[in-house]
Structures are given as C-alpha cells and as structure tokens.
Design a protein that fits this description.
Largest sheet: 5 strands, parallel
Shape: elongated
Bound molecules: zinc ion
CATH class of the largest domain: Alpha Beta
Radius of gyration: 23 Å
Helix content: 40-55%
Distance between the termini: 47 Å
CATH superfamily of the largest domain: P-loop containing nucleotide triphosphate hydrolases
CATH topology of the largest domain: Rossmann fold
Length: about 325
C-alpha cells in the first residue's frame, strides 16, 4: 500500500543515505494513523539497501531481498508489552546490536510508541544514544512527543509527518476502497482526518458497529432496552473498543451545537438529549475507560458503570 503523503519525508532522507550522513537516532512523530511505522520501515530499508540511488532502494541487493521476505536479522522492532516497553527489551536489543555492529552493514532498531518506555527503559536507551555504535540507526516513533524525556529528544534528529488535507485523505481512501462517499467522510471524521485509521475503520466495518452503538444509546435513553442488555452486547462484540469514536461523535455534536464546527454527525440522527455539562463528564469518562482498557481490569463492570452514567446524563432532559 503506497502512502503518497510520505513521499516528501522519503525524498528528504535519500540524500542523507547517499552522502553517508544517516543520523544515529531519529525521532519520528505524527498524529496516530499517519504511517509513522511505515515511514520508519522505509527509512530502515533505505539505510540497509546496498545500492540506493536518487530514486530510492534497488529492490535487488541481498538486503532488499531479505527485507522483502521479512526476515532480515539486522532490522529489529521493539513494541510495548502490556502497555510498557520494559528495560529488558531495550537492554537485550541494544546489547545485541552493539555487540554485532560492523563497519559495513547498517543495523536498524525501530522503537514503536516510544512514549511507552518507563524511566529505566528510557535511561537504558539514553546510554546507547550517548555513545552511539557505528552503523546503527535507532528510530523512535511516537504520537506523544511531549511524554519523552527531554534528554532523549535532544539526542535525536526530529522528523515530523505533516498532516494532510481532508480532500487528499478522501482522495486516497477513494483510491484504496470501494466505499461510499458518505462512509469515507464519516470514517475521516471519526479518525480526525487520519487516513490509515479511517482505512482500518472502513475495512473492519466499524461504521456499522458505531451506528448500532448510537442506536443502543438512544434506546437506553428511551428505556426500550436495559443497561445490562447493552453492556452484554457491547462486551461480547468487543464494541467497547469503539467508545472513543462515540466520544468523537459527542464532541462533534457539542461543537456543532455551539456553532464551532460544521460536522456531518447530524447524518447519524443521534437525538442526544443531555445537558452539556453531563455530556462533557460522560466524554471524560469514556477517555478514562479507554485508558483502563490496556489494564486487565473487569471490563464488563466498567462498561456497566459507564452506561449508567450515560443513562443518568441523558434521562433528565429526554425529548
Ligand atoms: Zn537494495
């Protein structure tokens, strides 16, 4: 899948490779769903290919072959385990790479969601950044750049993926899917104009699930369905992972109501009847709920509490 909006970043990186000026560490930041990991992998590929020219990688050398097959041992990716990047993960990898680094071949470490490093992990990484081994490129990706230690940030070359316009995102999604215009627009709205997240929403039929959730919430207001029925249904369908989208819809509704933003939420026919303050509290609780989802807590119980809050927030002013 080609992501045309990454072209500029890639074009700026090629001369660094050609002139052997690849930095030791890159901090790649962008909002969620803009293709940070894809760009990190493209950069890794450029660093590792043996014959990069002005157009990019050669697709023919042994590094290109191994990367295509997905089993190049010189490319390592670190991801959070249970919402944390542990110090043992950083140590193991930096040790392995430092011990085996050579003068000839580039090795690349990609650390996804680098903000999930705890203090010990960050300190372990800092040691490597302070004395960077030769021919090693470390790429940190994050959408929460402010959560990284300043000492780490200052040792990285910062690269940002610029947001793209709604029309460009729409155009790209039209070329990648056969979805209806309205659905594409709605998916982009839910994902705050993030093309890759909108793509996954469209591919996974999330829009139908979200619409069904809105219906359930309306029925809950009207007392035509019980709280337990809704909570069971959402939990068994894994719909609680879509609650952030409900928060986006409600926020869009509030902005629309206050004339701040012209949204297409009206298309949902979401007859929200709620005081603004109650709605804001509910939205805040959705965010807290979603954060807790990363922890192994009793999801069903939390979900019931949240739905009870919705019922209370909305029942007083029902139309
Ligand atoms: Zn190559």
């Amino acid at each position: 899948m080609s992501l045309p909006w990454l072209k500029e970043n890639i074009e700026q990186f090629i001369p660094l490779v050609r002139e052997q000026r690849i930095p030791h560490a890159i901090l790649l930041s962008a909002p969620r769903g803009m293709g940070k990991v894809e760009l990190a992998k493209e950069m890794a590929h450029l660093a590792m290919c043996e014959n990069v020219d002005d157009e990019g990688v050669c697709f023919q050398c042994s590094a290109c072959e191994l990367l295509k097959a997905g089993n190049h041992t010189d490319l390592s990716v670190i991801k959070a385990e249970n919402a944390v990047i542990k110090v043992s993960q950083i140590r193991k990898l930096t040790n392995d790479v430092v011990l085996t680094s050579s003068k000839n071949q580039f090795k690349v470490i990609i650390i996804e969601e680098a903000e999930k490093m705890n203090l010990s992990s960050a300190n372990a990484l800092l040691k490597t950044l302070e004395e960077p081994p030769q021919k090693v490129l470390i790429i940190l990706t994050t959408n929460e750049v402010g959560q990284l230690l300043p000492t780490i940030r200052s040792r990285c070359v910062k690269i940002t993926i610029q947001p793209i316009s709604q029309s460009l995102a729409h155009q790209w999604l039209t070329s990648q899917t056969d979805c209806k215009e309205d659905d594409i627009a709605f998916a982009l709205f839910l994902s705050d104009n993030s093309p890759l997240q909108a793509y996954s929403i469209l591919q996974n039929n999330t829009l139908d699930d979200v619409r069904a959730m809105v219906k359930d919430m309306e029925n809950l207001q009207k007392n035509t369905i019980t709280l337990l029925e809704v909570s069971k249904k959402w939990f068994s369908n894994n719909w609680h992972h879509n609650l952030n989208f409900i928060a986006v819809i409600l926020l869009g509704y509030l902005s629309h109501k206050n004339g701040l933003r012209n949204t297409n939420t009206a298309k949902l026919d979401f007859s929200i009847a709620s005081e603004e303050s109650g709605l804001l509290v509910f939205i805040r609780n959705i965010h807290q709920f979603s954060k807790r989802l990363e922890l192994p807590l009793k999801v069903e119980l939390q979900l019931e509490k949240l739905l009870l809050m919705w019922k209370k927030a909305s029942s007083s002013t029902i139309r």
